[in-house]
Amino acid sequence: MINRRQLLLGSAAGLVGQALTSNRGIAQTTGIASGIPSRQGVITPNGRSLPWRIRDGVKEFHLIAEEVEHEFAPGTKIKAWGYNGSTPGPTIEAVEGDRVRFYVTNRLPEPTTIHWHGLILPFGMDGVAGLTQRAIQPGETWVYEFDLKQHGTHMYHPHADEMLQMAMGMMGMFIIHPREAEENPVDRDYALLLHNWAVHPGTYRPDPAVMTEFDLWTMNSKVFPAIDPLLAQTGERVRVRIGNLSMWNHPMHMHGVQFDVTGSDGGRWPRQQWRKEVTEIVGVGQTRDLEFVAVAGDWPLHCHMSHHTMNAMGHDLPNTLGVNQRDIVQRMRALVPGYMAMGETGMSEHQSHIDMGHINGPENTLPMMGGQGPYGGMEMGGMFTLIKVRDRMDAAPGQDPGWYQPPEGTQAYPVTAAPEDLPS
């Protein structure tokens, strides 16, 4: 039951939320709490951390649920839903033991809430519409306030019309740093949130009714080649925090190193529980922390479900592999001007024809494969990015240091033929 104090607080929250917005640059900061020595914040590729301010010892944040215009990569934009102008919403950072207060303003056309995924908190702050609270109506601002009793990699998302609102992009990362300094501290700390989208060719809004056959697979709501690379310097210890609020599990594979799986939404695990992997499945609703010592190179990090590293996936298409289509090309062009037969020998020609401008795809639709590397087309998309490591890394987050140059004698090379006496 809502008491008088809560009712008054709810009616005043809009004014306070407005003050939080208008006071930017005066009473707030970004990143994590000040006063904690040797503590650095998380880097969210293609994103940012949510600003906050301290008021009477409480860390205050303002989240605004609203429609946003979002670009997956140049060539595809949609009308999504998110927080504070983006999907995913800004990463929340705080410290174990902090008391936090969230003003949540709803600018959507329907009710919403926020569920703090994996957090230990009072029942009434859990954010489940109809169970722990009334839903936040359009135009209302509500307050969530609680103490952070744990550390780890967490997430936030609605628990009202959840299927639609999450399909539209409403989610974000919530990183709680430990109060005490970590053993084996990291030099760089990254956060990636995995999601999937049903954006049919030629359309501009996600289809929330799709359950399995998605078109786009994203890291921080971007697809390759628009996902910012993760930067590091040789010998640095790097942590990649991965959260999954998609509808699929994702076996995340990292090239170049054996990483340690060191934590989850349960926090950083005791050292004896760490394990070496090169691929780690991040299940739906789960988070995992992957740590490694950086080795020079441009190393891929991607989902190992191969159709999750492609864009604008088509479904229920005829299989043309091995099919000679030459006899029907002219008849097809009479129906579809400019028609080109493809797929007889594979899909590589698809990207090359698009790159050369021979064909155009549907409106507002990315090609299935893309990305140019130093030696040609990379033929990737979706949940794929690069960990770029240099002996000296001068580039800032969001910048690209260029392509890695392998030292002489350390790169594959062509030969005329294999030795005749080589067994096979």
From TrEMBL:
<dbReference type="Pfam" id="PF07732">
    <property type="entry name" value="Cu-oxidase_3"/>
</dbReference>
<dbReference type="InterPro" id="IPR008972">
    <property type="entry name" value="Cupredoxin"/>
</dbReference>
<feature type="domain" description="Plastocyanin-like">
    <location>
        <begin position="210"/>
        <end position="317"/>
    </location>
</feature>
<dbReference type="InterPro" id="IPR011706">
    <property type="entry name" value="Cu-oxidase_C"/>
</dbReference>
<dbReference type="Pfam" id="PF07731">
    <property type="entry name" value="Cu-oxidase_2"/>
</dbReference>
<dbReference type="InterPro" id="IPR045087">
    <property type="entry name" value="Cu-oxidase_fam"/>
</dbReference>
<dbReference type="GO" id="GO:0016491">
    <property type="term" value="F:oxidoreductase activity"/>
</dbReference>
<feature type="domain" description="Plastocyanin-like">
    <location>
        <begin position="68"/>
        <end position="180"/>
    </location>
</feature>
<keyword id="KW-0186">Copper</keyword>
<dbReference type="GO" id="GO:0005507">
    <property type="term" value="F:copper ion binding"/>
</dbReference>
<protein>
    <submittedName>
        <fullName>Multicopper oxidase</fullName>
    </submittedName>
</protein>
<feature type="region of interest" description="Disordered">
    <location>
        <begin position="395"/>
        <end position="424"/>
    </location>
</feature>
<dbReference type="InterPro" id="IPR002355">
    <property type="entry name" value="Cu_oxidase_Cu_BS"/>
</dbReference>
<keyword id="KW-0479">Metal-binding</keyword>
<dbReference type="InterPro" id="IPR011707">
    <property type="entry name" value="Cu-oxidase-like_N"/>
</dbReference>
<keyword id="KW-0560">Oxidoreductase</keyword>
